[in-house]
Amino acid sequence: MEATEKDILRGGQFLVKETSCEDIFTPEDFSEEQQMMKESVIEFNDREIIPNKARFEAKDYALTEECMRKAGEMGFLSVAVPEEYGGMGMGFVSTMLVCDYISSGTGSFSTAFGAHTGIGTMPITLYGTEEQKQKYVPKLASGEWFGAYCLTEPGAGSDANSGKTTAKLSDDGKHYIINGQKMWISNAGFCNLFIVFARIEDDKYITGFIVENNPENGITLGEEEHKLGIRASSTRQVFFNDTKVPVENMLSERGNGFKIAMNALNVGRIKLAAACLDSQRRITTTGVQYATERKQFKTPIAEFGAIKSKLAEMATNAYAGESACYRAAKNIEDRIAIRMAQGNSHQEAELKGVEEYAIECSILKVAVSEDVQSCADEGIQIFGGMGFSEETPMEAAWRDARIARIYEGTNEINRMLSVGMLVKKAMKGHVDLLGPAMAVKDELMGIPSFDMPDYSVLFSEEKEMIAKLKKVFLMVAGAAVQKYGPDLEKHQQLMMAASNILIEIYMAESTILRTEKNVKRFGEDKQKEQIAMAKLYLFNAVELVKKNGLEGIVSFADGDEQKAMLMGLKRFTKYANYPNVVELRNTIAEKVKAENKYCF
Amino acid sequence: MEATEKDILRGGQFLVKETSCEDIFTPEDFSEEQQMMKESVIEFNDREIIPNKARFEAKDYALTEECMRKAGEMGFLSVAVPEEYGGMGMGFVSTMLVCDYISSGTGSFSTAFGAHTGIGTMPITLYGTEEQKQKYVPKLASGEWFGAYCLTEPGAGSDANSGKTTAKLSDDGKHYIINGQKMWISNAGFCNLFIVFARIEDDKYITGFIVENNPENGITLGEEEHKLGIRASSTRQVFFNDTKVPVENMLSERGNGFKIAMNALNVGRIKLAAACLDSQRRITTTGVQYATERKQFKTPIAEFGAIKSKLAEMATNAYAGESACYRAAKNIEDRIAIRMAQGNSHQEAELKGVEEYAIECSILKVAVSEDVQSCADEGIQIFGGMGFSEETPMEAAWRDARIARIYEGTNEINRMLSVGMLVKKAMKGHVDLLGPAMAVKDELMGIPSFDMPDYSVLFSEEKEMIAKLKKVFLMVAGAAVQKYGPDLEKHQQLMMAASNILIEIYMAESTILRTEKNVKRFGEDKQKEQIAMAKLYLFNAVELVKKNGLEGIVSFADGDEQKAMLMGLKRFTKYANYPNVVELRNTIAEKVKAENKYCF
Ligand SMILES: Cc1cc2nc3c(=O)[nH]c(=O)nc-3n(C[C@H](O)[C@H](O)[C@H](O)COP(=O)(O)OP(=O)(O)OC[C@H]3O[C@@H](n4cnc5c(N)ncnc54)[C@H](O)[C@@H]3O)c2cc1C
Ligand SMILES: Cc1cc2nc3c(=O)[nH]c(=O)nc-3n(C[C@H](O)[C@H](O)[C@H](O)COP(=O)(O)OP(=O)(O)OC[C@H]3O[C@@H](n4cnc5c(N)ncnc54)[C@H](O)[C@@H]3O)c2cc1C
């Protein structure tokens, strides 16, 4: 069944439209081909990555390169690359799936993989000329060559367009001469090609270039950075000293670099989210296996409520992350297909398809990168003292997880982007927030409706809650926009609070919809624990919405306005029937214990 | 002014009694002697520890030992040791102060210091015979000898009494022969003396011994453990193989070891809390200094709301930690003095004095160890990519902080202890919880009182809130005890929720009382930011109480009981006038920025 324009939500629209569970894609919808791909990636990981954990931790950069080469042989580097350039041309969901399952073993390899296939290759497939693509992409897709992405500079991190690297046209007009210093460049130590961003003259925006790595062309590398985590990921400074780049190696047009950089990051973000999923699964599995074996007080620690609670929360967040990541991935895939059907080139379609869901990409990046951190944190805690030892896998997982909140745009930047982009979409009329925001305002003035759903129907209460959480966002963000207009961006603490609400809504809704869809196909019996996870995630989400909503309201509204909004917050975050949270957690934990692994 | 029995709260009583701000000790009450001690410790740290950070990170165990030796020369190891055994015999507050300020530079040294002066020396000063004290304590106090504490075994961590190490009386009755394996022993690599816990025959409880470190006496060490953090803290396994210990080296009586171990841990816990304070101060200082220098978007990042919010929260938690740690420390000091005045020996008085506040010790251990983790976490985030580099101090601070949630009893164990001990105290009639809990129940059935404090008086609202938060605890814990009786202990998730509430109450109340006391002496003008911190801490605390209260209520109460309690929760967590949280944070951050350091 082909998705049509009408069926699928536009980016950000999840906030104002109800999605029916049939309209979302879930990991249970993987095609046979995708299942096979998944298994093959897991098998690769189990064979090549996991057993070598100690070597990665010992900064064996060569091993990372070797594994990348092997991943190339398996075809994993080419999943997203169109067939005409030597790739498999698989869809976005498949791309995500590979990112997901290949990333569990160590953040070192995961980062190398992400930097190469994402920001190292994509700018060429997305913006390259036919010649550029013919020349470079097949090599990158096969793993004959590796790519790196040089955007960041010592003075230009979050403010990516402020770089000082220059590109000057040579006198004969045949080359650009690049000078500058790039920093934190993943894969720098073994790559054959850099995507480099540099400024031409006094251009407002930077320009992208494809630069082959040739030490005789003024390219030198700094020493390997010594880092908290992802120890075997090569990260170096790259210095360009009168590096000559043929004019035909400019990417897209002059001044288009910032756009390229940002679009590459959109893809990078959602893929990074996927890349934080399988570590959560593996950490949960390692955690439960330890907890069922380790005894204290003559009892396997997995029997203690304190530990069960951790296992349940870990599994739930992983499940929520999967639900939201694959939902968004399929939206992107469908959007690309629609655009192509409308006559867009593959390139254009892919670009616009991802850009459309930039809000979701930011949301996912933040949510899943934070979940993997807390998952690893609980993983350490389950292991007690052993969690602090380099002999067990938890501490490396914890250190590796830390980077995900920093790169591909810090979580602060992504939080602000998520709300900022939404507000812009609303202003442009791409998403109608104003109408629904006004409706909420009216609702608040009126008498509360006493219409109640039939609470005996599965998820009726939860869906009502989701609808109400959306009202909280509309109420808070709506009033903030009204008060500050475009200046809202300067009120970052409000932006952050609004973003926290937005994130929880997307994650919780995705989790519920996935579960609802699966209940319909597989039966409620088979989804008991998933139902518990959906309910638990929502319960936690509601608490976060309450807190962030309150923080926002008391900080920009006074007097009667504040009172009305507090009343609204209360009304919109109140369950008719509260779930028994302890029972939910126990249900989930018992399942994880019984299967002795993450099993959803 | 000497404290008398009547003036000071018993352990756990903070929950049911109102404390007036004059009755708490604050860091602003340090005596001249204490100030001098503080400065001398800071100076030592600045000279010996901070500049050597890189060496500590490179696992230079010898440096740790050398610094310990120097700390001995400065007298820092002898602060808590009575004068008759070569110590300074300073009070508990001074002991805390040294732990606090000596711990900022690196967790490696901090751990070595804590293990030696706390669990390595204290068991002898607290439980030793006169001969044992004469023989060992002066050497430990001067740093001629170092101590270590051998409780944990591979199979006995949280369940400390379950160790398999045995002590068998020799045929001639002159020695105990110790056999067993101890694990995770801090300072093992360079200590001269071990406090060892072992079981005699089939005793229910283990017994403590003083064991001199003599390789020819069957004592061997494992390799240094490779750890996530505190890299230069020596941590090894210790094997005892027919180790002969003279009978006169038994600590206290046979079977008294578990009690010794637990009491040593009580002191260890509150000192560990103190040991997590100065790193928070230093991280905050390093963070603000970076944030005012680092520019992105042509703006020092310290100007961004997202960063200001972090700085404010970091400072606030550090300030709250100080407030609560020194409040409890002085209670302990006073309690010891009272007991001595009543005729207890110094030893007995000290033991009972600390034991009295075991609840507070657990509370502080959990709260402050979690705060230092989030402080370091935000520290990394402020540094962006540089936070991930070993070249900047944040990543080591983050790794080092992680241990504090594991040792001296995991935070799970301490959470459960805090509530468990309180309930036991109530049962024993040492703290009257039942009366107040009944009063809350009655209040809930009655018509809400409309008596309002005069909100124009500083902290009137905040104190009302604290009183209400206490009611939440009494309501939730009271009902839980009523429902489950002594079985409550098995309902760990409830225990954890109750503990989270208890912790927030103690921390928030201490913060407000400290500030109130200082406002009275120094004037409101001079305490603007402290007032903001007290209010911000409370606001966050209320949110946590709401969440944990709700979780508890919906998980053990149904129907009308649930409704009534939810109503109570709402009533008891509602401000009459909400503070503007963003404004509070900005006030705090602006001060930290202006002083370019933690300055409270
Ligand atoms: C291991 C590693 C690998 C990397 N790989 C690559 C790579 O392959 N290619 C590449 O180009 N880059 C790479 N990076 C760089 C990475 O993308 C940047 O570190 C990141 O974008 C943050 O930039 P920064 O480090 O300059 O931090 P800054 O931008 O200086 O940020 C510091 C702090 O200020 C905050 N901040 C900044 N601006 C604002 C604002 N306007 N409002 C609110 N808060 C703000 C940030 O959120 C952060 O908390 C890598 C970094 C690391 C650590
Ligand atoms: C670096 C380092 C230094 C140390 N230094 C010393 C030292 O000098 N001397 C010494 O004797 N020990 C030392 N220890 C040991 C430390 O005290 C123990 O690691 C700690 O008490 C936890 O015990 P464990 O590691 O066996 O974890 P476990 O007890 O196995 O705990 C594993 C998990 O189960 C949980 N758990 C256990 N029991 C329960 C329960 N009843 N209910 C709910 N949850 C439970 C724990 O909270 C934890 O999450 C050190 C440890 C480390 C890592």
Task: Explain this structure.
Chains A, B: Residues 468-571 form the Acyl-CoA dehydrogenase-like C-terminal domain. Chains A, B: Keywords: FAD, Flavoprotein, Oxidoreductase. Chains A, B: It holds the Pfam family Acyl-CoA_dh_1. The structure is a homodimer of 600-residue chains. Chain A has helices at residues 32-49, 53-57, 61-73, 92-102, 107-120, 122-127, 130-142, 257-275, 277-293, 305-341, 346-356, 358-383, 394-401, 411-427, 434-445, 460-484, 492-522, 528-556, 559-572, 581-595, and strands at 147-150, 166-169, 175-186, 193-200, 207-212, 219-221, 235-246, 250-251, 295-296, 299-300. The first copy, chain A, has 600 residues and is α+β, with helices and mostly antiparallel strands. The first copy, chain A, has two domains: 1-30 and 276-600, Butyryl-CoA Dehydrogenase, subunit A, domain 3 (Up-down Bundle), CATH 1.20.140; 147-257, Butyryl-CoA Dehydrogenase, subunit A, domain 2, CATH 2.40.110. In chain A, the strands form two sheets. In chain A, strands 1, 2, 3, 4, 5, 6, 7 and 8 form an eight-stranded mixed beta sheet that branches. A two-stranded antiparallel sheet of chain A has the order 9-10. In chain A, a hairpin with a 6-residue loop joins strand 4 (193-200) and strand 5 (207-212). In chain A, helix 8 (257-275) packs parallel to helix 12 (358-383), helix 16 runs antiparallel to helix 17 (492-522) and helix 16 packs antiparallel against helix 19. The longest helix of chain A has 37 residues, at 305-341. Chain A is globular. The two termini of chain A are 26 Å apart. Chains A and B meet through strand 9, helix 10, helix 13, helix 14 and helix 17 of A and strand 9, helix 10, helix 13, helix 14 and helix 17 of B. One flavin-adenine dinucleotide sits between chains B (115, 148-152, 157-158, 184-186, 227, 235, 403, 406-407, 409-410, 412-413, 492) and A (294, 296-297, 301, 304, 306-307, 381-382, 384-386, 388).
